[in-house]
Design goal:
The structure holds 2 protein chains of 2 kinds.
Chain A (H helix, E strand, L loop, with lengths): L2 E5 L3 H13 L4 E5 L2 H11 L3 E4 L15 H11 L5 E5 L4 H10 L3 E4 L4 H12 L4 E2 L1 H13 L10 H11 L4 H8 L3 H15 L4 H14 L6 H7 L3 H4 L1 H8 L1
Helix pairs in contact in A: 4-6, 7-9, 7-10, 8-9, 9-10
Chain B lengths: L2 H6 L5 E5 L3 H13 L4 E5 L2 H11 L3 E4 L9 H12 L4 E6 L4 H10 L3 E4 L4 H13 L8 H9 L8
Parallel strand pairs in B: 1-2, 1-3, 3-4, 4-5
Classes of the chains: A alpha/beta, B alpha/beta.
Chain lengths: ~240, ~160
């Protein structure tokens, strides 16, 4: 019999999943309402399949504490084969993609019909990837957009900041150059990370370098030049990056 | 036949759940069934929920607030049901824990407000309190604070 571990901070959702699974004959269901409790149960009870939410205990996608994504990565690093089905309310393809990169075997939206849970469950139990048709298309399109349209939705200020980050400038230096506060720069970078799906600053810098290489005539370039006349002349390495 | 008489004729307690998350509906159904309430109707949107309410005249309605892109769509449903029959008891079952929203719901005529983070027991207690209550729903400003205080603080892990 398959032992399933359910991790969701909404007890009612746990009850709903348990009911759907038990009606389908899966009777060995264990539950946790937090990432920590979920990990403990995983270690103790050796479930064969995990169904988990991404937002756990008030942590919205890992802004603090151990998030669903952290837990997913941790379990995946412990066991490369265990099927993990993410059951989430987030339909954003960036989030779906992050979950798959973190090691999810399947991703199902919480507003899916109960029958889809069974279909997804059976698919991941066979160690096959499960994504509903619509999500699969969106994730695929995300990959296509990343080739050239990654930076389309960003504001002029965000693009300026991204370019300066890519040039290795500190937040203080960016604040001074753009004549804004340090906090504004920190907030802009935080928004950039969210919008671009970058988890950490080095990843944002890498994307910034990609932006510079893609966009020699990038928006905000002119205003930056006005703000800092002759900056390229004083920083030949930056000029090299721009022309790359 | 008035809604009240329609309900009095029935010996079986009935509950209508209106929520656009099928797993929440399944969870509520399971909790209610374990507690012996087997006549449970459900709808996944406001329009179907209201139609089912008119058709079945349940003893209790459990309604979510957010439907699709409308974060407070359930609120108008609460008002409409209460305007139809002031004796109908309506529990709002929502993810929102903002006291202002709780207050809006109580003002609109909800007899109780349960946050979705609540444990199954809290949900069942609210259902039983509302089914047992003979008195008309009481809207009390303190309820909002009390309900908001039920939320456990977010603990760093």
């Amino acid at each position: 019999m398959t032992r399933v571990l359910l991790i969701d901070d909404h007890p009612i959702v746990l009850q709903g999943c348990r009911r759907v699974l038990q009606d389908a004959g899966v009777c060995d269901v264990i539950e946790a309402t937090s990432a920590v409790a979920g990990y403990r149960l995983y270690r103790r009870n050796h479930p064969e399949t995990i169904i988990m939410d991404l937002s756990l205990q008030g942590n919205r996608l890992g802004r603090a504490g151990l998030s669903g994504l952290d837990l997913l990565r941790r379990i995946r690093s412990d066991d490369s084969r265990i099927p993990i089905l993410v059951l989430s309310m987030h339909g954003d393809p960036v989030i779906v993609s992050s979950a798959l990169e973190a090691g999810a075997t399947g991703y199902l939206l919480k507003d899916a019909a109960p029958g889809n849970l069974l279909k997804a469950f059976e698919t991941v139990c066979r160690h096959r990837l499960y994504l509903c048709h619509e999500l699969a298309i969106q994730v695929a399109l995300l990959g296509v957009r990343r080739q050239g349209e990654t930076f389309v939705g960003l504001s002029s200020r965000e693009l300026q900041t991204l370019a300066l980050v890519a040039e290795g400038k500190t937040y203080e230096e960016i604040a001074e150059q753009l004549r804004v506060s340090y906090k504004t720069v920190a907030n802009t970078c935080s928004q950039l990370k969210t919008k671009l799906g970058a988890r950490k600053l080095p990843e944002l810098i890498r994307m910034g370098v990609e932006y510079l290489s893609l966009s020699p005539d990038r928006p905000g370039h002119g205003s930056e030049q006005r703000a800092q006349d002759g900056s390229s002349a004083r920083h030949p390495d930056r000029a090299a990056v721009r022309s790359a | 036949m008035s809604p009240r008489l329609a309900r009095a004729d029935r010996s079986v307690t009935s509950v209508l759940i209106i929520d656009d998350h099928p797993f929440v509906i399944q969870g509520c159904k399971r909790i209610l069934e374990v507690a012996g309430i087997n006549l449970v109707f459900s709808a996944a949107d406001v329009a179907n929920g209201y139609a089912l309410y008119q058709q079945k005249r349940p003893d209790l309605v459990v309604v979510d607030l957010s439907f699709g892109g409308d974060a407070l769509a359930g609120l108008s449903l609460v008002r409409r049901i209460r305007a139809d029959d002031p004796t109908t008891r309506v529990i709002v079952f929502s993810m929102h824990d903002d006291p202002a929203i709780v207050q809006h719901c109580l003002s609109a005529g909800a007899s109780d407000y349960v946050v979705k983070d609540a444990c199954s027991t809290a949900f069942l207690k609210a259902v039983q309190r509302d089914l047992d209550s003979k008195a008309p729903p009481v809207v009390d400003a303190d309820d909002a604070t009390m309900i908001a205080a039920r939320q456990p603080p977010a603990r760093p892990i």
